[in-house]
Amino acid sequence: MPVSDKNEAARPRVVLGVSGGIAAYKACELLRRLTESGHDVRVVPTQSALHFVGAATWSALSGHPVATEVWSDVHEVPHVRIGQGADLVVVAPATADLLAKAAHGLADDLLTNTLLTARCPVVLVPAMHTEMWEHPATQENVATLRRRGAVVVEPAVGRLTGADTGKGRLPDPGEIFEVCRRVLARGVREPDLTGRHVVISAGGTREPLDPVRFLGNRSSGKQGYALARTAAARGARVTLIAANTTALPDPAGVDLVPVGTAVQLREAVLKAAADADAVVMAAAVADFRPAVYAAGKIKKRDGQDPEPISLVRNPDILAEISRDRARPGQVVVGFAAETDDVLANGRAKLRRKGCDLLVVNEVGESKTFGEAESEAVVLGADGSETPVPFGPKEVLSDTVWDLVTDRFSGASAE
């Protein structure tokens, strides 16, 4: 076999399905990201998708011929071979019509035939008007597809066609790519968090002193966002409560709830946790807040020292949700950022907070906060210790969700 053929065989094979919605043009960016990261991508559009982006564009960007009908190149049996040979099938955008056909096993073109023959992970990224997304028929089709093992990414909220705004927008192509990358990395056809609702807090709270100043911390929110992306790629319904993370792009398939202070974060967590299977408190929550908020900017006065700032305690959210579980079997995960005696302080915090798992990592200059990599030890209330070596934060995220799903299984067995 020539060297070039060997390289082709080693590349992950992705089928990019494109159905006939206005967001079809955004799939060009997803295709670019997939090909530039080393994936061999075959684009399979529906006939209506070609009204938005022509076959010549897909062929030029992918390096493969494009067909929509099962009658093209019949001797190669493409309606069977394309799905059989794929490592991943992703459909973006997936219209309400495409979701309905996939849920009911219809196969009237090359893309729907491919979906029926695929034995690899399938990711569907819906995009449509809010009323269509919220219609009971669409929601039932989505539930059916998820039950069968497909990862159906929740649409984003934002500007739709015309002047309409609401839920139904195609998520950012870069974030769709992250979902695809995580699904491919796991190589598991059945997403293990399907049917689960998980709540994740991320970022760092800010406690205002006056209209221009606040007490805060150095948390970037990257670990919480990695947890959210990983959970979405594993099939979960994700609520991400984000404290001051505007510098980060919204993860695809996640319901984002922005907050600012510890009190606001507590309210959002308690509300979202009411029907959650797991709550992961990755946010850095301020322990204290100023006792008095100055309505005007605190002025610097020549020759005078500033007035001392009195602090009061913020609510201990992790201890509260661990003590008052919203539902039986709910798994609660905390995070502990330590600078010394890391494991000893972590074990003490685990006992004090009453959570099921505590992710303990050492923080400091160029350690954890704001970085793309981290290392940690995950302590369990059962006495377990799971070290996670230095590496990308998504590796730690997968470890956390592995440990959470283990506890789901244990609860089911009991």
UniProtKB/TrEMBL annotation:
It catalyses: (R)-4'-phosphopantothenate + L-cysteine + CTP = N-[(R)-4-phosphopantothenoyl]-L-cysteine + CMP + diphosphate + H(+); N-[(R)-4-phosphopantothenoyl]-L-cysteine + H(+) = (R)-4'-phosphopantetheine + CO2. Keywords: Decarboxylase, Flavoprotein, FMN, Ligase, Lyase, Magnesium, Metal-binding, Multifunctional enzyme. One of its GO terms (cellular component) is phosphopantothenoylcysteine decarboxylase complex. Residues 13-180 form the Flavoprotein domain. Residues 193-405 form the DNA/pantothenate metabolism flavoprotein C-terminal domain. It comes from the Bacteria. Residues 1-197 are annotated as: Phosphopantothenoylcysteine decarboxylase. CTP binds at residues 287, 297, 315-318, 335, 349, 353. Binds 1 FMN per subunit. GO terms for biological process: coenzyme A biosynthetic process; pantothenate catabolic process. Catalyzes two sequential steps in the biosynthesis of coenzyme A. In the first step cysteine is conjugated to 4'-phosphopantothenate to form 4-phosphopantothenoylcysteine. In the second step the latter compound is decarboxylated to form 4'-phosphopantotheine. This is Coenzyme A biosynthesis bifunctional protein CoaBC. It comes from Streptomyces uncialis. The lineage of its organism: Bacteria, Bacillati, Actinomycetota, Actinomycetes, Kitasatosporales.
